[in-house]
Structures are given as structure tokens and as C-alpha cells.
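Task card 7
Instruction: Convert sequence to C-alpha cells.
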Amino acid sequence: MNVKRVLLIEGSVNLLMSVVKLGVGISANSAAVIADAVHSFTDVINNVLAWMATNIANSPADKDHQYGHQKFEQIAVFGLASLLSIVAFEMLIGAYNRFGEPVEQNFLGLVILICTLVANILLTIWERYWANRLESDILQADASHTLSDVLTTVVVIVGWQLAAQGYYWLDTVFASIVSLLIFYLAFKLFQRAIPILVDYSDIDPSTISAEVNNLKEVSSVIRVRSRTGANGRVADVIVTVDPDLPTIESHHIADEIEAILASKFNIQDVLVHIEPKPSK
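Output:
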């Protein structure tokens, strides 16, 4: 089993569940259930984007992408978050337009919806297992997304049953709740992707400089830059040393700086540039 195969299996299950939920929603005339069906269909799109992003991100560096293709995964996540935001907005408008319309009871549909709920719970557990086993961040994120489907379906079932008892306005209320849950999910995905895409730095450069300056061989720290990369934190450091220091000693200093940044700040990708200390 690999990441792409897990995504393929999950995407097939999500497609089946979205079709089933849509059929139940149309037969019951429930905006909340239809909203849940649309949400499930976005999971299918999510799986497709994740599969494509994983395929590209695992490609080796080439002449056009000399730092690799890891950011393609975050571009896919950003695209999904944008899509979810649009879907959530459309669902809010649709729920408002259907305010007060009668909602029908459908016991067969209720049983089917409960079955999809159980299937989503099992799917979440299964995907989380493979995410841990394969140590895949994208599967972890996707499993969290599937868990949101579980919560959404619970809300939808409650709203549908209350609306079917004559409280029609509750169908719009619960459809709106589903929309807000999707907005929140999109927000969390934006939080994950944007810092990497814009090279956000979450470490104060002066903190890194202070640690590096503790090395007695380092005369000064000229510049420190760090950013959040697709595979973790990345940093480059420029320091000065005694101009008479042998090259091999300068190399050892660079190794020490790399070790400090790895242990103190969890920065595994470090570029150290060493310059001679200016003469007075």
C-alpha cells in the first residue's frame, strides 16, 4: 500500500457516498442533506488533487525546478481551500433561497445516510492508520478532512429529522451550520498552505544569531534567513571567522552551526556561508 493507492480507494468511496447522499437529499427535499452531498463531492476533488500533487511532489528536481517539486502539494491544498470556500458560499445562498420549504421524511433514506456515516467513520480510522504507517502529512490532512465529514453528517441527520417534524426552518439553519463547518475547514487548509507558499518565517533571526554567536570560532553573524518549507524549516546563515583559519576548520564550524540549528530549532535544511573577518 502507498499514499496514491490510499487516495484512490478513498476517492472511490467518497464518490459513491456523494451520489447516495444526493439521491437521499433530492428525495427528501432537504437542503441540509444536499449540502452534505456537495461536501462529500468536494472530498472526491480533494482526493484527485492530493493524488496529482503527491505524484508531482515526488518527482525529482529538474532544470526548471532545481529545488524540487514539493510546493506543488501546497498549491493543491490552496486550490482545494479556495474551492471549498466557493462551495460553502453557494450552499449558504441555496439554503437561504429554500428557507421554509417543506422537508419530507424518508426512512429508507435515513437508514442509508446512517450507513454512510458509519462508512465515513471506518474510512477515517483506516486512512489515519495508513497516514501513520506511511508517515504522510497529506494523508493526515485528508483524514482530518474525512473526520469533518463525520461531524457534518451527524449535524445533517439531526437537522433533517427535526425539519421533517414540521420545523422546516431548521433545515436551513442546519444547512448553514454545514456551510460554516466547510468555511472553517477551508480556513485551516489556508493556514497550512499559505505560510509555505509565501516562505513564512516563524523564528526570530536574533534568536538564531545568539545561538550561533556562542561558538567561539564565530566572529560575527552577518545574516540569518529562515522559512517554512514543504519538508520542514529551511535556513541560510552568513558568518565571519578568523581569515587565517584553515579551510577544514571552517568546514567544521559550518557542521557545528548546522547541528545547532537542527537541535535547537528543528531546522534540518541549512546553508552556511563563511566569510573572513574584515581587517580593522
